[in-house]
Amino acid sequence: MAIHNHYAGRAVSETENSRKTRYAAASLGWEAIEVSSSSEICQFDPDFVIALHFRTPKLTKYPTYGSMVSPPAYFAHDDQFVKNILSYDAYLSSSDHISNWLKDILYAAHKTYFIAPWYASCQSGPYRPPQLAHPRLFYAGTNWDGPRYKELFEQLDRQPFTDIYGPATSWEYIQHSYRGALPFDGSSILDALNKAGVGLCLHREEHCAARTPSSRIFEIAASGAVAICQEHPFIRDAFQDSVLYLEPTDDAVRLTRQISEYMQWIAQNPEDALNLSRCAYGIFAQNYALEKLLADLVPRHKELLQRKKFTPNNSPKILGEKDAQFIVRVGDRGAGYLERTLDCVSRQSYSRVGAILVQYKEVPGLSQTLQKYKHRLPICVVQSSYTGSRSTQLWEGLKALSSEYFCILDDDDAIHPNHLSLLVQLLDRFKDCGVAYSGAIRVWESDGAADPAPELPSEPAELMYFEPFDLGRLVALDNFITSNAFVARTSLLKDLSDDPQLPLLEDLFLLLFLCRKTNFVFSYEATCEFRWRVNKADNSVWIDRQNWEAARKRIEQLLWKASFPSTQEIGCLGLSQLQTQMETQQTQLKSLQSRLTEIETAVKDTKTKADAVTLRLNRYLNLPFFDVIRRVRRKLLGLPPPEA
Predict the structure, then answer these.
(1) In 99, 214, 307, 624, which residue has its Cα 20 to 30 A from 607's Cα atom?
(2) pLDDT tens track for 176-195
(3) What is the pTM for the complete model shown?
(4) Dihedral sign (CA 101, 102, 107, 108)
(5) What CA–CA distances, in Å, run from 277 to 121, 163, 212, 236?
(6) Cβ atoms within 10 Å, residue 517
(7) pLDDT value of position 184
(8) In whole angstroms, how far apart are CA 312 and each of 243, 347, 416, 589?
(9) 547 pLDDT tier (thresholds 50, 70, 90)
(10) How many CB atoms lie within 10 A of CB 262?
(11) Using alpha carbons only, what angle is made at residue 332 by residues 331 and 333, rounded to the nearest 5 degrees?
(12) How are beta strands 405-410 and 486-489 bridged, if at all?
């Protein structure tokens, strides 16, 4: 198991959770490492990945499960965070509130996933009775979002039993009870809690609203300490009367008084306090220890491998599967790049797969490379002349197709083992769709030509494209579907026109042709990768900008006034036309905003009147019941109100 920590090496809760998860995995006999990048994941070659934070999308071919222990208020407002979450293969959720949010955003996604119970818990160990002869109150916090419960801790700072841990900069206002920072090693906090004897568990409002617990309740219970907890739905349901609860109030003085009373009770009743400790530990160990949560993942993981076709197909062609061919153009890169691409094709879990190589330049070592796939992958080589137009080789590959489905790969692209299977499943499910496509991951790499090799980013992969279908964007020549991301029905090419002789953007032109013929469906998976050279010399976007713009103009001319599904004479829009549309929409938006202001003013007036009515009603409600009845009766009869 690889534990992907976006904040690896930093003193934050994700680092602590990563260490605790490694301890739990080791006790199960698993091999687990913490990683900070996709390249480390690929080197480790795990069975699956747990992404600890929603800032990290799925970035590799391995099943990736998102740890959903933060309330949706932290991420639901950000489109990129939501895309990252949607890219996961499955979800580890710490509350029904989070699970329901996930089900809502995945409602129309048509993807296979599971949602399993998961918490920011910790590893299990033998029960250790806390030291209650002179109990101390333990609290730890990084306060990454600023001081929390400042007035309460200012009051607790004056108490003789308080011990506060965390970064010094986060607790500068504490004068007497600050005890320093603990290592984020997954065990020191448990030792400190056990030594103190009592732990204080508080939550942000967002956690309470989402019914998701922080790690503290699990750490307190696992350590054997007695828990004093703020009211929280999960803690009340899960731990019931095995912890001590604070009043639901923001009054720091009252809370401090209650905590002091609890500390006095614990000191005077150590056996009763130990009974609470043992009960809370038992609930934790039986239901919420990381060892149990990880072990419960195994059957779900195995089932997902089968349902999402992660396992490469080593058997003969599966009966009922239809042939699919990949068009691969070769000539500008070495045979080593091509071998990586053909490996991806030959390792597809889809069984009936082949390749059409369109060769337009000599490639040293090509014949030796193809010999390796003689018994692994049917390959047809089409010889082509180099014309300077990338569309020429693509069109010759399209004409050579003999399969039910077709795909396109550059000779340095990569696809995940279940890429083709998932997309064909979508086409089988949605008969009215002729094209299925996935999200795309951009991977930075060096071409090996420079000496010394340029430095790669610390995270060489990023979720570059992950967009539901938008015909308007494609018609505006804003492409969000990479050439290796889609699978299409070959029957759509029956009336394909001659080679448009485009030096660039030939894949976009093909997509626009397919848009006029069929519907598209998005997989909500990230199963393909395209490479990006650090020196930029081999990236199409860095090719002469004039040629790129010229290709756009050619496409506008080729598809001028062309009709598309669910449109009426929607021509290819140039940048100037798009600008005009945007200005019109901005004017309409200002008008709507003005109208909204008028509505808000009217609502305020209505609220003022409603408040006046409420005030009068409250006057009646504050009177004795029979007096209210008497006043209402006189009102209905038209009599004046009684004297006060």
Answers:
(1) 624
(2) 999 999 999 999 999 999 99
(3) 0.85
(4) positive
(5) 17, 19, 22, 15
(6) 18
(7) 95
(8) 50, 6, 10, 52
(9) confident
(10) 20
(11) 100
(12) antiparallel
